[in-house]
């Protein structure tokens, strides 16, 4: 008698029957979705008049509502960006890296294969159908390539759908409807934004959604069959996620009980530290703006950007632009959005992430308030970046760069024992030096503006080091994984 027969004999036919029923219902649902997409494909391919009329009516109506309002257009573009490859590919890459760190290769492989399939389906079908994009009275956005199906709609449905299936097991049962609702809302808003911007018809978006649902359904069913064939427990209802036993590893920080003791007291301490840091920066900035012009320090401050200006060449202009971009808001935010999930995956603690977030939020608010209060003019040289909305003291680019890489170095050095950990202190020196030289070379800052950035970093990180204690109870990745396994066993 085979093992399968023994299992059936011991447990009865009910589990097998339930699984078969769920499989048949799932198959019917996938077929229905596939038929819906195929119907839309044929109607679009053969230019069915009622559908064309509906598509043009919706496109024109939304264009009249959106055109003429820069705020609406900007908001729609921001929403649309969450469905672009430039956002979704890094998002999936970070989640895949986190899953591999947590030793969950099967769901990581599922994400990769499902995502690659969507990337192949989108351009292939667009070339096959060859539908032109909408032509509206007042264009507010443009997109290359063909229109059917919407790549943003297909991609967002696949990406946020497969992430929901993979991460659902790590969400507490009472929060799962809200989690799924949030994912659905994001997909719906992205699809709406593509129609409202006038780059897709309604049928393009609906087709993208239907194809995305069909694709993730097929890959999810294949994943569940793969689990059974490799000897894992029989698939549970999909509401438990693709791999329910991965729940302890999918929770963000299961190895940490208390993030920050006495949070109200700590919040008051941080606020007092912020005020004192602002007072220090304002005092130094006021002195530099009021007392140094005409003195040796003022002449030195203006002389360094002038001297650096004499070295300008097209090649150095391009290099300085790249270094300068390493300290702008987008680059700093991108590094934070990559580092924080990976830090949670490795060390399973919120405190280092909280330390980094408070560091960057404090830096931004201190820079903006100090720049507005001091209002120091830029150096009297040609400024390659044009007129900036903020004043010169302190340098926001340099302060953000120093704060970011210093905070990361503090976190990593206490938790990594390998020799490569010294890369981060080196980056904490090299990155700010490169950004500082580029900003002065481009005529955007004085040397004392760099000093202001150094003072901001030293004072603010000192405040957070004393209050947050980022390395209290610091553990290595191995120790965190061991503590998590012991927690699961207990």
TrEMBL record:
Keywords: Membrane, Transmembrane, Transmembrane helix. The keyword Transmembrane applies. The chain crosses the membrane at residues 24-44, 82-101, 108-129, 149-171, 178-201, 207-226, 270-288, 329-347, 354-374, 394-413, 420-438, 450-468. It comes from the Bacteria. The keyword Ubl conjugation does not apply. InterPro entries: PAP2/HPO, PAP2/HPO_sf. Residues 108-220, 353-465 form the Phosphatidic acid phosphatase type 2/haloperoxidase domain. PANTHER family: AT30094P, SPHINGOSINE-1-PHOSPHATE PHOSPHOHYDROLASE. This is Undecaprenyl-diphosphatase. It comes from Actinoplanes teichomyceticus.
């Amino acid at each position: 008698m085979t093992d399968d027969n023994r299992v059936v004999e011991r447990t009865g036919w009910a589990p097998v029957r339930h699984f078969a029923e769920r499989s048949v219902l799932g198959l019917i649902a996938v077929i229905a979705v596939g038929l819906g997409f195929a119907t839309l494909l044929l109607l679009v391919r053969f230019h069915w008049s009622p559908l064309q009329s509906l598509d043009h009516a919706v496109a024109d109506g939304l264009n009249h509502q959106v055109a003429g309002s820069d705020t609406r257009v900007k908001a729609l573009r921001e929403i649309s960006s969450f469905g672009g490859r430039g956002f979704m590919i890094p998002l999936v890459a970070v989640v895949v890296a986190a899953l591999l760190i947590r030793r969950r290769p099967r769901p990581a492989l599922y994400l990769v294969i499902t995502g690659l399939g969507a990337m192949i389906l989108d351009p292939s079908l667009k070339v096959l159908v060859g539908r032109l994009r909408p032509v509206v009275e007042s264009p507010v956005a443009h997109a290359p390539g063909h229109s059917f199906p919407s790549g943003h709609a297909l991609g967002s449905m696949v990406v946020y759908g497969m992430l929901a299936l993979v991460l659902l097991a790590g969400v507490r049962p009472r929060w799962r409807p809200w989690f799924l609702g949030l994912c659905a809302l994001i997909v719906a808003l992205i699809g709406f934004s593509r129609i409202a911007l006038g780059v897709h018809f309604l049928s393009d978006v609906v087709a993208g959604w239907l194809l995305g649902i069909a694709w993730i359904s097929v890959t999810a069913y294949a994943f569940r069959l793969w689990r059974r064939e490799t000897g894992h427990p029989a698939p549970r209802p999909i509401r438990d996620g693709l791999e329910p036993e991965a729940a302890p590893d999918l929770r963000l920080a299961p190895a940490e009980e208390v993030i920050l003791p006495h949070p109200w007291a700590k919040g008051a301490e941080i606020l007092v530290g912020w005020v004192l840091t602002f007072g220090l920066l304002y005092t130094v900035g006021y002195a530099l703006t009021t007392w140094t012009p005409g003195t040796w320090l003022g002449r030195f401050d203006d002389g360094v950007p002038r001297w650096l200006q004499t070295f300008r060449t097209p090649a150095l202009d391009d290099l300085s632009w790249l270094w300068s971009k390493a300290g702008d808001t987008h680059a700093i935010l991108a590094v934070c959005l990559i580092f924080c999930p990976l830090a949670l995956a490795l060390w399973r603690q919120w405190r280092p992430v909280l330390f980094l977030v408070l560091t960057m939020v404090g830096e931004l608010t201190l820079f903006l308030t100090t720049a507005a209060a001091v209002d120091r003019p830029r150096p009297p040289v040609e400024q390659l970046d044009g007129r900036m909305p903020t004043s010169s003291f302190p340098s926001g680019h340099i302060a953000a760069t120093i704060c970011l890489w210093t905070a990361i170095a503090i976190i990593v050095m206490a938790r990594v024992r390998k020799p490569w950990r010294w890369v981060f202190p080196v980056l904490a020196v090299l990155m700010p030096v490169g950004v500082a030289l580029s900003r002065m070379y481009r005529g955007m800052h004085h040397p004392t503006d760099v000093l202001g950035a150094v003072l901001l970093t030293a004072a603010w990180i000192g405040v957070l080091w004393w209050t947050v204690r980022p390395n209290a109870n610091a553990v290595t990745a191995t120790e965190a994984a061991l503590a998590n396994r012991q927690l699961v066993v207990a």
